[in-house]
Amino acid sequence: MIPWVLYIIAILGAIVCLMQKDLLKMAVLTSVSGFAVAAIYQVLLAPDVALTQAVVGAAIIPTLVAIAVLKTREEPISKDEGDL
């Protein structure tokens, strides 16, 4: 029964992630989905793959996406800077 719950969490996490308009929320949901997939690998007795998935899919990729989003956010232009 536990694998089915993890399958549902991973699938729903990915679907909800795709429907997000806020990119930071998308990064968090990618992490949730990545942890669910890592747990699936652990249940399927593949601890090496589970560890790799947890590190890469649930930690590194969402962190890089969040950093990229924060660095590329558009700052509002004040009236002083807009006039030449």
From TrEMBL:
Source superkingdom: Archaea
UniProt organism field: Methanosphaera cuniculi
Protein name per its UniProtKB record: MrpA C-terminal/MbhD domain-containing protein
Domain MrpA C-terminal/MbhD residue range list: 8-73
InterPro entries: MrpA_C/MbhD, Nuo/plastoQ_OxRdtase_6_NuoJ
Keywords (A to Z) from UniProt: Cell membrane, Membrane, Transmembrane, Transmembrane helix
Membrane topology: Multi-pass membrane protein
Entry GO CC: plasma membrane
Transmembrane region(s): 6-21, 26-44, 50-70
Location within or outside the cell: Cell membrane
